[in-house]
Amino acid sequence: MPEIIKIFFFFSHILNESSYIFPETRLQQIFEEREATTQELNTLAQAHFLRPKNAERMSNEAIQHYKKLCSGLSKQQKEKIINLFYNLEYIASIYPKRNTNPDIILIQGSTVPNMRERLMFLAKNVEEGIIHLKPETQIVFLVGERPLFSTETKEILINPSPYLKDPNWHIPNILPHDEREASKLIWAQLKLPLSLKEKKPIFIEATKQQDLARAQTMDCVQLWLQKMTPQDHQKVLMISNNPYIQYQKNVTELGIAKAGFNKLFDVEGAGRSFDINDQDIDITIGILMDTLARVLYVENQLQEIRIQKET
């Protein structure tokens, strides 16, 4: 929490406009004492840091929001914010605990390049003996209804470079037009360790809600939980990539808690790093702040569930 308040402090010139949310004296107290509740931080984050509704992360509308958010920051301040996000583990790769032997491996859906990265991150950790696959270990793709972006071209679909193709894979007559179809192509296309390739993955294919542009992480998690009836305690390894690992881990835990299964699952999040070197720093910070706002929203819900169960 102290790291998050330090990040918020850099945006105090924006947050000070929140007197309609909190009394001005309370805002001053938060910044002076470096203490706030998750509920308070969430309220501020939802008001100021989320990208516009239904705007994709790299849309022009979202980028304008990021630029405006960072317009009052110096270069030195921006670099300090990035360092704080390193401390929060939103940037560097997060590796699974050594010799982990999960019962379930969840691979979160995303763009075609990201899904490849996530699957190959898993493959590398299997090859290096960090992840041990048991005969009963399930590989589950959590994918949703989303038309492929214009950047997910035919060339991107058929060329998995820098990764190797499975020698038995051939270009299909009809290429995917949707994230759900693309996840199946990626699994068949990539050369994977035998212990992984011999698994038959489960594809959880969520549909989008009526007023949204695409299916959300929670839609996928809830559909997965509807399709299973856990009997015993199970270890779940969730594969994403930064800066989304904490957020998607939290959403998975929230879905589990809402389903009443929180005593039956332990969830660990892992994934590759957030590549920030070739990206405009304002866009990087904007994406990080948007993600932090979503993390706080989910953490606030998790806290509310815990409080309800204690009363």
Task: Give your account of this protein's structure.
This protein is of the alpha/beta class. It has 2 domains: 1-92 and 275-311, no CATH class; 104-273, no CATH class. Helices cover 48% and strands 11% of the residues. The protein has 13 helices and 5 strands. The chain has helices spanning 2-10, 12-15, 24-33, 38-48, 60-70, 75-87, 112-127, 154-158, 179-189, 194-197, 217-226, 245-258, 281-310; strands at 104-108, 138-144, 202-206, 234-241, 265-272. The chain has a 5-stranded parallel sheet with strand order 3-2-1-4-5, with helices on both faces. Strand 4, helix 12 and strand 5 form a beta-alpha-beta unit. Helix 5 packs across helix 13 (281-310) and helix 6 (75-87) packs across helix 13. The longest helix is centred in the last third of the chain and has 30 residues, at 281-310. The radius of gyration is 20 Å and the shape is globular. It starts with a helix and ends with a helix. The relative contact order is 0.16. The model has no long low-confidence stretch (mean pLDDT 92).
